Automatic annotation (TrEMBL):
Keywords assigned: Electron transport, Heme, Iron, Metal-binding, Signal, Transport
Protein name per Swiss-Prot or TrEMBL: C-type cytochrome
Cytochrome c domain segment(s): 21-106
Source species: Pseudaquabacterium inlustre
UniProt xrefs under Pfam families: Cytochrom_C (PF00034)
SUPFAM superfamilies with a match to the protein in the record: Cytochrome c (SSF46626)
Amino acid sequence: MNVRPLLGLLVAVALPLAAADAWANPDEVLTKAGCMACHAKDKKLVGPSFKDIAAKYKGQDVVAKLGEKVRKGGAGVFGPVPMPPHGADKIGDADLKTAVEAILKS
C-alpha cells in the first residue's frame, strides 16, 4: 500500500493547525488570553495601557523579559496593583510572543 497520498493529506491538514498560533491576529490573541480584561490599547484600566507599556520600553529588546513578567506576574512597575501570573495553559508561548510584540508596537 502506498502511504504517500495519505501522508501528504495529513501534513496538509496538520501543518496549518500547528502553525495557527504563529499566524494569529494579535488582537485575537490579546482578547483570547484575557489581556483586555485589565488593559486597553490607549487608556489605563486596571493595568497600564499598551501605549504606556510601549513607551516605557521603547527602543529596548524586552520581548523575553516581558514574556517572563506575564508568566510570573508582578507589581510595582506601573503602580501597586499586581498582575497575576498567566501560565502556558492560559496563553501559549507563540501567542505570548505575538501579544508582547504587538503591545510593544502600540
